[in-house]
Amino acid sequence: MVWNDEKLIKTLEENGVVVMPTDTLYGIVGRALNASVVDRIYTIRKRNTQKPCIILICDMEELKKFGIILTKTKQKEIEKYKEPTSFIVDCENEKFKYLHRGINTLAFRIPVSQSLRNLLIKVGPLLVPSANPEGLLPAKNIAEAKKYFGDLVNFYVDGGELTGKPSKIIKLHKDGSASIIRE
Asked: In CATH, what number is assigned to the domain containing residue 60?
């Protein structure tokens, strides 16, 4: 796929913002552990500042970077899903307020695609809201994304026409139960 592109990797490593295909839709993407990158994505996307975004991680170990350690029960719940599924977990650490926006939860997804996980191994966790301004339909191709964002992003990665759907979202509760937020 397109995730081993050297310019993509370099742009992300240098804290740029990229529009690229994810494992579901085109996303407007940047490093999740950099507050200024996250704020820039919110500004470019005109996203409601009270709504956290999904973060792509390469594996469960990455959660430790956010101060999150899952119980075995929660890990087993996540492993049940084979389609792209984002999981919401508690994160009350004030250090990550720029990500959780005071809601004290974060949503993560481990992509099924090994090549996308390889990109995450190289550049770290990525914030990945869909490539569209708040309230508009997600871009299905790079031409639509460029109409939305023009030169506000540093790099566009063309993955062709994407007609996927957003990931399923599940909420993992403190008591070990889970509920589906989005099918």
From this structure: 3.90.870.10
